[in-house]
């Protein structure tokens, strides 16, 4: 056992995205939930295509959040990942677009639709509250799998 794991016991059971993804799919059993995710993700991607400069802080924030996953596994929530991502994304987006509103729009669209799916149809708490970075990856992967014709049977 590594020294890190002795100091910080692991509260989050999924160490890798590959381990997390089956759990993510299980949290999206209902087709309506997945459809709301697809709508939110698609609209956010379209928005990013109209404001490509926002991809710079998005990637920077995402990479920073991803890089701290091993160090935040002992925490019960994904708050540290979210704070790091939002600090980088919102600061960079505001500096590059000169508008905090334009910077927030894709987040509000993407998470808004996704969370409606969870709270109205799936009746569960979004995995992004605990695993925000892996949940974003899961959303993209689930959409990719759907476009490939993957049958989500539960």
Explain the overall architecture.
It is a single chain. This protein has 154 residues and is mainly α. It has one domain. 71% of the residues lie in helices and 0% in strands. It contains 8 helices and no strands. Helix 3 packs antiparallel against helix 7. The chain is globular, with a radius of gyration of 16 Å. The model has no long low-confidence stretch (mean pLDDT 94).
In short:
With 154 residues, the chain is an all-alpha fold.
Give me the secondary-structure topology.
Elements: H1 3-7, H2 17-26, H3 31-50, H4 55-67, H5 69-72, H6 79-97, H7 100-122, H8 132-147
Helix pairs in contact: 2-8, 3-7, 3-8, 4-6, 6-7
Tell me the major beta sheet. Answer: none
Looking at how many chains there are and whether they match, the oligomeric state comes to single chain
**Average pLDDT, to the nearest integer?**
94
Percent strand equals under 5%
How many helices? The count is 8
**SSE succession:** HHHHHHHH
Which overall shape is indicated by the principal axes computed on the Cα atoms?
globular
Helical coverage, percent range? over 70%
**Low-confidence parts, pLDDT < 50 over ≥5 residues?**
none
Distance between the termini: 35 Å
Number of domain modules: 1
Descriptive labels:
154 residues; mainly alpha; 8 helices; 0% strand; globular
